[in-house]
Amino acid sequence: MANIDKNKRQVTIFQSSGSECVEPKTTDLKQFVNIVYTASGKGTLVDRVTSETASFLPISNLECGNSYLLNLTGVSSFNIPGATLAIEGANTNLMTTLFPTVFTISGKGTFHLTDNPVNKKPAYKTVDGTMYVWFNNTTYVMSPNLQSMAGAITNASCLPNASYGDGRDSTSQSIQISGFTGSAADANGVYEEVGYLNDKPMFRNGSDCSYFYFFDGSRWVISNMAGSTSTEACFIRGTSDMFGTLSSNGRCFENQTGTSRDGKVDPRSLATESKQHLLTTESKESILITEEN
Amino acid sequence: MALITTNLTLGWYGVHGSEPCQPLDLATHFGTYTSGKQFVPGTIGMSESALDNFKLQIWTHNSDGTGRSWNLFQEKIGFNSFSKLNCGQMYWIVWIGNGDIHVPGFVPTALDVDMGRITA
């Protein structure tokens, strides 16, 4: 929560701090804030007069993951739930990103975050400008021109650093989650590194971006909220090991268990010479497969 | 490193990563002047003419809520009121020059894009 002094004419804030996403309505701030500004992502500002209530107007809420500039009325001091005050000296906290800021795809180059998102997801570019990575509303695309499918390859993912196939993989670490069933099956799959939390990499699932794998300070966790275990969460219990069996006391997808392992290690590399036997974990879940399987 | 490709962007300086966040010294990165007013290019390697005439302006807010800026003209006359991008602070960047500029540690944000959370 940001406590904002009425004597300031303008302030900048970031929404949101901590693991919870809180998105207050801009019209609810009209007593304290005249106008809200944010970047359009196309090189302009978008503004919202908070006293105007038409539903088609932009910036209906202070959305999580975005920066805002506020013109204050000066009537009284106030709080904005979930916000981080971003003016000089207000804090020294850093951002845990939900998308990578930079990544390298083998054989293709190093891609840097740009200020020109496409279809509500960040877009990337090589420094020499010869290749772009952007979201086409279905999948991330790598192409020589932004928003052009000419010469494009796709990765069937909501993350820009998921594999584009044929060895065109990110050089950063990835995690493989398996073993969940039913409605939790979406939590299975490859998780790519997107940021850092508690001094460890944080990973996000590449199929629909709805799950995160992170270190909570003592344990590795899978959760549908970045940095939060307040909803459903599965832990590697009793250890700070990054890989192992994920479970919980009733909050892990109706008492299911899953497994996390290094996404860069092909389990076939550990197959027996005869390639006829599977190795199993203590929980009897298969983790190694043979060429035949 | 972020690539600034548009005329105006707002964003956060400082991300959690494998290395500790360090302030970005703007004179070192973009360039500065000698006492004889000779331009000294920064590590970004751009020329004076690529950046001057207010092609690049970086703005932030003082603790009292007033805006202030860094640009090459003010650098030349010793009038910049801040010299670094500080970890944990928001900036907006006006860029009307040619090509892209690189700003390490800066995370551009935009309407409808959930880029992250501020964490301790």
Q: Could you please describe the fold and organization of this structure?
A:
The complex is a heterodimer of chains A (293) and B (120). Chain A is mainly β and 293 residues long. The relative contact order of chain A is 0.11. The C terminus of chain A is likely disordered. Chain B is mainly beta and 120 residues long. Chain B has one domain. A 5-stranded antiparallel sheet of chain B has the order 7-6-9-2-11. Chains A and B meet through strand 2, strand 5, strand 8 and strand 16 of A and strand 1, strand 2, strand 9, strand 11 and strand 12 of B. Strand 8 of chain A pairs antiparallel with strand 12 of chain B, so a sheet runs across the interface.
* Overall pLDDT of chain B: 96
Task: Give, in spatial order, the strands making up the sheet with the most strands of chain A.
Answer: 20-19-18-17-16-15-22-21
Structural class estimated from helices and strands of chain B = mainly beta
Major beta sheet summary of chain B = 5 strands, antiparallel
Instruction: Tell me, rounded to a whole number, the average pLDDT of chain A.
Output: 90
Q: How many separate structural domains of chain A?
A: 3
- So what's the overall shape of chain A? globular
Indicate the multimeric state.
heterodimer
**Ranges of chain B with pLDDT <50 over ≥5 residues?**
none
Q: Whole-Å distance between the termini of chain B? A: 21 Å
| SSE succession of chain B | EEEHEEHEEHEEEEE
Q: Classify the beta-strand content of chain B into a percent band.
A: 35-45%
Largest pleated sheet of chain A: 8 strands, antiparallel
Secondary structure layout plus pairing:
The complex is a heterodimer of chains A (293) and B (120).
Chain A: E1 2-4, E2 10-15, E3 33-39, E4 45-49, E5 66-72, E6 78-80, E7 83-85, E8 94-97, E9 102-105, E10 109-113, E11 124-126, E12 132-135, E13 140-143, E14 153-154, E15 174-178, E16 189-197, E17 200-205, E18 212-215, E19 220-223, E20 233-235, E21 244-246, E22 258-262
Antiparallel strand pairs in A: 1-6, 2-5, 2-7, 3-4, 3-5, 9-10, 10-11, 11-12, 12-13, 13-14, 15-16, 15-22, 16-17, 17-18, 18-19, 19-20, 21-22
Chain B: E1 2-4, E2 8-13, E3 24-25, H1 26-30, E4 31-33, E5 39-41, H2 48-51, E6 56-61, E7 67-71, H3 72-76, E8 84-85, E9 89-95, E10 101-103, E11 106-109, E12 116-119
